[in-house]
Every structure is written in structure tokens, then in C-alpha cells.
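Researcher: Let's continue the batch. This sequence belongs to Fe2OG dioxygenase domain-containing protein, and it's 366 residues. Same format as the previous ones, please.
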Amino acid sequence: MEAAEQSHRSYSNRKNELQAFDDTKAGVKGLVDAGVKKIPDIFIHPPDVFENNSGDKCKDFCIPVIDLEGLDKDQESHQEIVNKVRCASETFGVFQVVNHGIPVNVLEEMLHGVRRFFEQDTEVKKEFYTRDSTRKVVYYSNFYLFSAPAADWRDTLYCVMAPPPQPEELPAPCRDIQIEFSEQVMKLGITLFGLLSEALGLDINHLEDMECAKGLELFCHCYPPCPQPELTLGTTKHTDFHFLTVLLQDQIGGLQILHQDHWIDVPPLPGTLIVNIGDLLQLLTNDRFKSVEHRVVANKIGLRVSVACFFSTGLMPSPKLYGPIKELVSDDNPPKYRETTAQEYLSYSYSKGLDGESRLLHFRLK
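Model: Same format as before. Here are the C-alpha cells for Fe2OG dioxygenase domain-containing protein:
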């Protein structure tokens, strides 16, 4: 009985601490700005999450870098790129692209815009702070704050960019560049889904025709410097539950992918974008392409920013069903997943939270 009461008090105290943190609407950056020297207990992760860090034997693993410059050069160059996309999607579930068509000045200004938003006074940012997931523009710290085992050292500005919002709905410090950057990413998305379609042996427009490139959400993340980075994470281990992610990160680094049970660093390369396969694309390809587990480690160096662009139609009410693509299944390779709508998958993902288990298991056929 005494142990149960102690557990209840501990849960109650934690809940109160979480609520007090959320009520400040200042996020993790607010703690840093206030001069915190020791991270609050709500951010401390269990020791086992820091195991399996990449060792010497993993130094040979390099995240594939694919140069898109030769796409329209000739058929041989085009096919070589398709082959590289196929190999990376089947093996790593992630690759980096260079010569992707988005000017470097646009990438840099997008990162500057994110910094400008988060460096505003808290009173100004509070206008956007909410946990209402139906809003198109939201500023918050930790989407799963009240359900995750430990909070992450991260704040986020979330914006739905396709269908496009009204410009005045977007924060002024990054409004213009968000619109321009999103338009460029949408064009790149068409190219990437075309390459992925060809990599599967399908018509180049197959995934686009399935509306995989129709919706776009921007998650602009801010990772303030952490006084005790060995005790917490910037982002907990997870997979992305959308079709595809295009990630822009600054030069501080911290992104890692889980490969062969070891965490591998994804070092920042100037001008590159990182492409992650998402859960729904793994479902569509019947496990041929892999939705990669990844995380972000905390750092002492400085304020890190990144922009994760999720191609998703989960916020668009639609009866459209997604299941393993019929051209990819056979008697020898039967469907491994039941059909689902993007909205159902999104709703399940939100309700499940980050508990360390793949969301895809819920949709797997017995």
C-alpha cells in the first residue's frame, strides 16, 4: 500500500511539473534563457536509451548521398540515380540529396527564419502556443509532453503548408520564406516520388497519382543548448508516420539513425537535404522500403534548428484507402498490411504516442 501511494504521489508530482512547464508557454528555450544549470526531472531519460551508440565498427556506414544533377541528362544517368534511390530506401530508409534544385540561399534563409521566430520574446510567441492539434499554425514544446515517459529538449513551430494557409496566419518573422521554401519542397517532392515510383518498377507518376505529394506539413524545430545533454534527448527514437520526410538541418548536427542496432550519426553537409522513408510508404511498398528509426541527441554547443517537411494527407478528411500496392504483391509476396486511410493512421499515431513500438504493427495482417 505504501509503495502504491508513493507511486501515485510521484505520478501526481510529475503531472504537476509538466503542467507548470506547459503553462509558462516559454518552452525549453525559456528555461535556457532563464539561465537553468540543471535540467528539470521531467526531461531526464532512462539510462538505457543512451546505449548502442555508434562505435568504431559503425564508422564504415555512410548515409548515401545522391546527386540529382544528372536526372535529365540522359537515360543512363537517370537510371543510375533511380538505382541509388532504390538501394538506399531498401537498406537505410534514408538518403541525402544534393543538386536538388532548391537554392542554397533559400535553405539558409529558411533556417534564419526559424531562428528569428524562436528568438522572439516569449510574450510574442505565446500568441501561437497551443495544444489544439486542429489549428494550422501551432507553437508548442513536446507534442507528447503529457504521455511520453520523458520530455525532449525541444520546441516546435508547426505549420500546415499544403493546402496553403492564409499568409497572415503564419508568423511574421518567417512568413515569406516559409511560403517560398514550401513551394520549392513541393516541387522536389514530385521529383522524389517519381524516383521512388521508378525504383519500385512502377510508372513515374504512380505515387503522385496516389496523392502522396498532395499535403505538406512543416515542423520547425528548435533545440536550445542543454546544460546536461548526457541526461536527455532532443528527440526521442521514432519513425515518421507520413509518406515521406524532407529534412533541412543546420550545421550543428545531432541527428542519428538506427542501423543494424547501432546509432549512426548523420553529419550535416552544406546544401544537402535528408530524405526519410515514412511508415505509410513502408506500408504501401509492403515492407520493401524501410521507415527508418531516428532521434536527435541534445548538445551543449548552441541553438540547433531544423525543418522537417512531412508529405502527408492525414489532416485532409478523405475516404481514400492505402494498402500494399497491388503491383508489388503476389502469391509469393502477399499483402502484409490491411488498408487504412491516412487520417486513421494519423489518429492512431497520435493516440499511441512514443512508446518504442512500431505503429505499423497495429495495421499488420496476422
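Researcher: Any comment?
Model: The chain has one domain: 22-355.
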